[in-house]
């Protein structure tokens, strides 16, 4: 059952839909996820989400390309009986999805979202970053607010969640190789959407941490700026925000 059909059923019945048994719980959590773009982040997150039983649709400007077909085949190897994998155009992929991942270069992300059609009711997962390089070689954030807020303005009926922008794609492929726990900071205005994205991150072995409304996405995007600058300085790190024990 997809997120959207579950929400519809909940509206009709007026109560949360409860499922008993592992199989049914798995089906309740299985969504269709459109990965817009087929580069490094899509190639890392798509297989990871497929492993969790979700249906993956890659949205590409050229879905017939050999690299895209290879990604579909590689993702298919991760798929459980529930999930399926395919590739199609970006608009078609988004249209059929519950969750739309904008895994495209940060500078084109807002225009790409505008071109995807009506995304109302869907979750948009925004892992993008948009930076420029200053004269001294260090990165600076390139928009006044955040890409996530600009994306939200371009798709006002969608639930934008900022996440997965503060780590390298290789860590997404092999979270266990990070040498310790890694935090996925999350920002967004819809609690249920953030919970679903947190579930995806935790399903990969990360620690998800809700850092508040979408207006804090600018802080998350700045976290990436200093993360890149630390690499420039020769001191790469991963974010791990240790939770304090409950008082
Ligand atoms: N690389 C990382 O480690 C990393 C980590 C966290 C977040 N991010 C952020 O995640 C986003 C994706 O990064 P990436 O490294 O995956 O980028 P990438 O390897 O360059 O892949 C981006 C994909 O977007 C599509 N694309 C490129 N130009 C486009 C355009 N003008 N219009 C529509 N689609 C276009 C392409 O797919 P098709 O050719 O199939 O259309 C391309 O493969 C970026 O915003 C980046 O800042 C990156």
Q: List how many beta strands DSSP finds.
A: 10
- Distance from N terminus to C terminus (CA atoms, Å) equals 38 Å
Strand fraction equals 15-25%
CATH class: Alpha Beta
Strand order of the largest sheet: 3-2-1-4-5-8-9-10
CATH superfamily placement? NAD(P)-binding Rossmann-like Domain
Characterization of the model:
With 247 residues, the chain is an alpha/beta fold. It has a single domain, classed as Rossmann fold (3-Layer(aba) Sandwich), CATH 3.40.50. Strands 3-2-1-4-5-8-9-10 form an eight-stranded mixed β-sheet, sandwiched between helices. It has a two-stranded antiparallel sheet with strand order 6-7. Strand 9, helix 9 and strand 10 form a beta-alpha-beta unit. It is globular and about 40 Å long. NADP nicotinamide-adenine-dinucleotide phosphate (NAP) binds next to helix 3.
Keywords, please?
10 helices; binds NADP nicotinamide-adenine-dinucleotide phosphate; alpha/beta; Rossmann fold; 39% helix; 247 residues; 8-stranded mixed sheet
Topology:
Elements (H helix, E strand, L loop, with lengths): L2 H11 L8 H8 L2 E5 L3 H12 L3 E5 L6 H11 L8 E4 L1 H6 L3 E4 L6 H6 L8 E4 L4 E3 L5 E3 L5 H8 L4 E4 L6 H5 L9 E6 L2 H13 L3 E4 L6 H16 L15
Helix pairs in contact: 3-4
This protein binds NADP nicotinamide-adenine-dinucleotide phosphate.
